[in-house]
Amino acid sequence: MKLSHLRPRFRFTFFQRQFLSHLLLSMLILVLLAAGFTYYMKQRTFDNETEELAGVSKGIVRLLAKDGDDPTSALQAYRTLLAERRTSFILLDQAGEIAYRDPKMPGALRGKAFLDELRSHISDTKDNESFIVERGTEEPWVVVYRQTKLKPQKTELHLFVFSPLHGIQETMEALNQALIYMIVVIFVLAVAVSWLFSRSMSASILSLRRTTRQIAAGDYAARSTVRRSDELGELAGDFNSMARQLELALHKLQQFETRRRHFIMDVTHELRTPLTSIRGIIEGLKNDLVPSPEERANYYGIIEKETFRLIRLINGLLDMEKIESGLITLNKKRTPLKELFEIVHESLEVLIEEKRLHILIECEPDLQVYADYDRLMQILINLVKNSIQFTAYGTIRLTGSETETHTVIVIADTGRGMSKEELSLIWERFYKADPSRSKSNSETGLGLSIVKQLVEAHAGTIGADSTPGIGTSFMIALPKTDRAASKDGEAG
Ligand SMILES: Nc1ncnc2c1ncn2[C@@H]1O[C@H](COP(=O)(O)OP(=O)(O)OP(=O)(O)O)[C@@H](O)[C@H]1O
Ligand SMILES: [Mg+2]
Fold first, then answer.
1. Sign of the C-alpha dihedral, residues 288, 290, 291, 294?
2. Which superfamily, per CATH, for 331-492?
3. Cβ(431) to ligand 1 under 6 A?
4. Which one is the CATH code of 14-172: 3.40.50.10240, 3.40.190.10, 3.30.450.20, 3.40.50.150?
5. Is the Cβ atom of 415 under 6 angstroms away from ligand 1?
6. pLDDT by residue (tens digit) across 41-57?
7. Are the C-beta atoms of 273 and 315 separated by less than 8 Å?
8. What is the 3-state secondary structure (H, E, C) of the chain?
9. Mean pLDDT, the chain, as a whole number?
10. Which of 98, 142, 301, 389 would give a disulfide with 49, using CB separation of 3.0 to 4.6 Å?
11. What is the CA radius of gyration of the chain?
C-alpha cells in the first residue's frame, strides 16, 4: 500500500497555518478582553448600587430609631421618595415574618419565593452586605441587608432594601454594540497584519526551497537571497555556507580527477619512452644490425640503464603512492645531524670525485634532528644527488642550524641554477628541466616531489632559492618536537 494514499487530501500550506494561528490568537485575546471588560462593568454597577442601597438602609434605620410616634408613619413619608428611585424595602421579625412591607413594593416580589430567598440570607449576611436575587427574565435585584432595633420595645428586626440592578441591561447592550464594532475592526486589522507576517515568512521559505532545488539539480553556484535577522535568516546563512562547501568539494573533486588523468598520461608516457628504446635496441641486436662488439656492448649498457630507470620510476611511484595515502609510518628519533651529513658524503663520494666537486659540512656536532632516519637520508641523498647532477664545478655546502622550534638544513651548490619559472615547476611530478637529457641521465623527475612529500609528512617545510649560473640552495625546516609540529599545523 502506498503511503500517499494515507495522506489527508487537504494539506494546509505553511502560509495558511501561520495565518490561521495568528488570526485565532488575536480572536482569542479579543474574546478574553471582552469577557473581562463585561465582568468588570457588571461588578462596578453592582458595587455602585450596593453603596446607594446601604445609604438608603442607613436612613431607614435612623427613622426607625426615633423615639416617640409610630415610626412606620415616618417610613411612609420616606418611601414616596424611594419609589421614584425604584427602591423598596421590607422588615422581617425574629421569626422571619413580615413586620413591615413597603406598600409600593412591586407585585413581582410579593410572592413567597422572594420572601424565602430573603430569609435564607438572614443567618449568613453581615450588615450592609449585598446579594443578587434573580427574577426570571426581569432585571436582577440587588438586596442590601441590615439589622435594626425598633423602639420602644427594642424588637430586633431584619431590614432588606432592594432595587433592580437598573441600567445594567442598557449598559450591556451598549457594550456589546461597541464590542461588535471592535471585533470587526480588530478582525480586519488582524487579517491584514497576520497576512503580512505570514507572507513574508512563507516567501523566505519558498525562496530557500527554490535554491535547494537549484542545488539539487546540480547548480552549485546557487545561493539563497533571504536576508533576515531571525532564525530563518540564520538558516539561509547556514544554507549558503553549506552550498559553498559543496561547491568547494566539487571543485576539489574535479581538480583531483584532472590530476589523476594527467598522472596516468604522464606515467604511461614515462614508461613507454624507455620501453620503446629497449625494444628498438633488441630488434637491432636480433637482426644483427650491430656487427661491432664495442657498439653491441654500448647498446647492452643502454638497455641496462633504461631498465634501472624503469625500476627506479616504479619504485618512486610506489613510494609516492604510499606517502600520499598515508601508508608510511615515520619512526621519528633524535639523531646528530652532522653524522647524517657525513654518511651522505660517504655514500655519494664516487659521484663527487667523478665530477671533481667539493663537499663542505657546516654543523655543530651536538645539533640533533628529530626525524625518521631512513626517510631523512632519502631526502638528503635526493637533494645532494641533484646538486651533483646540476653542478659542473665548485662546492656543495651542507649546513645545519636551529631556531627555537625547528632544525634547519640548507643544501647549497654552485651549479647551473634555475630561472624563476623553472623554480616554480620543480616540485611537480615528472618535471625535468631538459626532457631530452632524460635518456642519458636516467632521471625520473620524481625526486623533488617525493622529497617535498616526505618533508611535509614530518610536518616540516621545504623551499628553494636559485640564481641562473650562480647556484641553487634548498632549505628544509623540521620541527624539533611533535608539539611544535602540531602547533605549526594549527597555525597553517
Ligand atoms: N640543484 C639543482 N640545480 C639546478 N636544477 C635543479 C636542481 N635540483 C633540481 N633541479 C631541477 O629540478 C628538476 C626536478 O628535479 P627532480 O629531482 O625532481 O628530478 P630529477 O633529478 O630530474 O630526476 P630524479 O631525481 O628522479 O633522478 C630537475 O630535472 C632539474 O631541472
Ligand atoms: Mg633528482
1. negative
2. Histidine kinase-like ATPase, C-terminal domain (3.30.565.10)
3. yes
4. 3.30.450.20
5. yes
6. 888 888 988 898 898 88
7. no
8. CCHHHHCCCCCCCHHHHHHHHHHHHHHHHHHHHHHHHHHHHHHHHHHHHHHHHHHHHHHHHHHHCCCCCCHHHHHHHHHHHHHHCCCEEEEECCCCCEEEECCCCCHHHCCHHHHHHHHHHHCCCCCCCEEEECCCCCCCEEEEEEEEEECCCCEEEEEEEEEECCCHHHHHHHHHHHHHHHHHHHHHHHHHHHHHHHHHHHHHHHHHHHHHHHHHCCCCCCCCCCCCCCHHHHHHHHHHHHHHHHHHHHHHHHHHHHHHHHHHHHHHHHHHHHHHHHHHHHHHHHCCCCCCHHHHHHHHHHHHHHHHHHHHHHHHHHHHHHHHCCCCCCCEEEEEHHHHHHHHHHHCHHHHHHCCCEEEEECCCCCEEEEEHHHHHHHHHHHHHHHHHCCCCCEEEEEEEECCCEEEEEEECCCCCCCHHHHHHCCCCCCCCCHHHHHHHCCCCCHHHHHHHHHHHCCCEEEEEEECCCEEEEEEEEECCHHHHHHHHHHC
9. 86
10. 142
11. 55
- Is there an atom of ligand 1 within 6 Å of 471 CB? no
- The predicted-structure confidence for 147-206, as pLDDT tens digits, reads as follows 887 766 777 889 999 888 877 777 778 888 888 888 888 888 888 888 888 888 888 999
In angstroms, how far is CA 93 from the centroid of its own chain? 81
For ligand 2, a single-atom ion, the residues with CB < 5 A are 386, 447
| 374-420 tens-digit pLDDT | 999 999 999 999 999 999 999 999 999 999 999 999 999 999 999 99
Which cell is 390 given? 646540476
Length of the chain: 492
443 lines ligand 1 (CB under 6 A): yes
181, amino acid identity: Y
Residues 6+ apart with CB under 8 A from 473: 410, 411, 412, 413, 464, 465, 466
Tell me the best of 448, 472, 474 to mutate to test the pocket of ligand 1, counting ligand atoms within 8 Å of each CB and taking the most.
448
Domain 220-328 belongs to what architecture?
A: Orthogonal Bundle (1.10)
pLDDT of residue 434: 64
Residue spans of the domains in the chain: they are 14-172, 220-328, 331-492
